[in-house]
Design brief:
The protein contains seven helices and 29 strands. The strands form eight sheets. Strands 10, 11, 14, 15, 17 and 18 form a six-stranded mixed sheet that branches.
């Protein structure tokens, strides 16, 4: 039976002949698309290196693609150490460089190492390690829009308003939240959901559920009576409507009638020509009563795109207060691990103020085609554009439009072959969105068309000549008839 000393020599000999090998790949965080990645495979052994191979696992793990191979036979180095001398443990490192990684580079990578056992050129010891490379993609775009836009202005009843923030092209899904005037909004979360591309009905379901949940609250907070709404700014009248109102003064109240007759000589205006401005602007902007801060309802959902990224849709819904929310700055802020700083999009809620109208041609003549178009607005001090998008309605004061309609919807009104009867007509353009309504009036001046007038005179002269020639021919024929005297 061997003693303890002999047992130590046996174990030492076993180590020298068997050898050992440990392989590990350095962990690394997710990499941003487009960056260059270096994968490092470290291995420790006391044997002689045979081969290093790198594989990329593809097709869901059913196949492997060889991306790098190192054969030690062609780069062998020989040692002058004696056979019985115990070699030192050696640490090796193999690296693979992946330039400008893309989405398709994501997946499992394996490092396989083979060594010859100590004292053998045929027995090979194998070991491997693997790492999963994760590629992240920053958001490509972010936008904020309003649902159901353009929408009319509600004068006597509060209405729900929904901002939608759409973030596209991100992987993984970003974190989205809303701010108002730079302050994070305290929201009431609703159920989150994931869906495939094309499922859009959940947004409508959200608005319906929020509307029902807020109905009782706002019935107690909002003045819905026309009589109780005494803070509402009265809508200004157009010049033609003012003239009609002045004509009706004193007809209903005898006291006012007598007072008007007594003070008539002093208040009677002098007979001067009517001066009507080219554009008259009026604005309607009521106040709402609100006893507490509004409740903001938040929903967040995501859907997969065809390129492997995600589209995130975040919705913020609350009962709009036109007086408090006008010129409020709302921002959608996005945080993502691929971004060094948050990404955001901003909108300023603004009621339309006095559409700027343009009429072409500048000098309208009878028979011309006239175009009246809205070219902009008189914006507030903090607003850079009107948001949400307003809707436009055109009417003719005191009558119908040229084609017989009562109103026309759209940014542009076209009048074809304007007749002389439209001279002096007043047209009203109403612009409104959920935050307010505004009117702009413009008068159409139609001048005579010399060409049409000359053509009409020529037509009358030609007709007179034709009638004269026809009458002369008739008399001549009658005189030539036999028996006619």
């Amino acid at each position: 039976m061997p003693g303890p000393l002999c047992l130590c020599f046996l174990l030492s000999g076993l180590r020298l002949t068997a050898g050992y090998l440990t392989v590990s790949i350095e962990p690394r965080p997710p990499v941003i698309i487009g960056d260059t990645v270096t994968l490092k495979c470290n291995f420790r052994t006391d044997g002689n290196l045979q081969e290093i191979m790198w594989f990329r696992v593809i097709e869901g793990g059913s196949a492997k693609q060889k991306i790098f191979t190192y054969d030690a036979m062609s780069n062998a180095s020989y040692s002058n150490m004696e056979e019985n001398h115990r070699p030192e443990d050696l640490i090796y490192q193999s690296t693979v460089r992946l330039p400008e990684v893309q989405m398709q580079d994501e997946g499992l990578y394996e490092c396989h190492v083979g060594i010859y056992e100590r004292g053998s050129t045929h027995k090979v010891l194998l070991a491997s390690s693997s790492i999963t490379l994760i590629v992240i993609v920053p958001p490509k775009s972010i936008s904020v829009m309003a649902t159901n836009s353009p929408a009319p202005f509600s004068r006597y009843k509060a209405q729900n308003f929904t901002l939608v923030c759409v973030v596209t092209g991100a992987k993984p899904a970003p974190v989205v939240h809303f701010k108002r005037d730079g302050e994070l909004i305290d929201v009431v979360p609703t159920e989150q959901s994931s869906s495939s591309v094309g499922e859009q009905s959940r947004a409508a379901d959200l608005e319906t559920s929020v509307s029902r949940s807020q109905e009782k609250l706002w019935n107690a907070l909002v003045l819905t009576s026309r009589d109780l709404d005494d803070t509402k700014v009265k809508k200004s009248l157009s010049p033609l409507e003012q003239e009609a109102k002045l004509g009706r003064l004193g007809q209903g109240d005898p006291g006012h009638s007598r007072q008007g007759s007594e003070e008539g000589p002093e208040l009677k205006p002098e007979p001067t020509a009517e001066v009507i401005p080219e554009t008259v602007v009026s604005r309607e902007f009521p106040r709402w009563v609100q006893s507490s801060d509004p409740l903001y309802y938040f929903q967040h959902r995501q859907q997969a795109a065809s390129d492997g990224t995600l589209e995130v849709i975040a919705m913020l819904t609350w009962s709009l207060n036109p007086q408090l929310d006008n010129e409020a700055l709302f921002s959608c802020e996005v945080n993502h691990p691929a971004l060094s700083m948050p990404m955001q999009a901003e909108v300023t809620l603004a009621a339309p103020r006095g559409p700027k109208l343009s009429t072409s041609p500048s000098r309208v003549k009878v028979g011309d085609t006239v175009s009246m178009v809205v070219q902009g607005f008189q914006l507030g001090p903090s607003a850079t554009e009107v948001f949400p998008e307003p809707m436009f309605t055109w009417t003719r004061v005191g009558g119908h439009l040229l084609d017989g309609r009562e109103e026309h919807s759209g940014r542009e009104l076209v009048l074809e072959r304007v007749p002389a009867e439209l001279n002096g007509s007043m047209f009203r353009c109403t612009a409104q969105n959920p935050l307010g309504s505004t009117d702009t009036h413009t008068r159409l001046i139609v001048f005579d068309n010399p060409r049409l007038k000359k053509g009409k005179e020529h037509y009358i002269a030609v007709n007179a000549g034709v009638r004269h020639c026809f009458l002369t021919l008739t008399v001549t024929v009658l005189l030539l008839l036999p028996g006619f005297t």
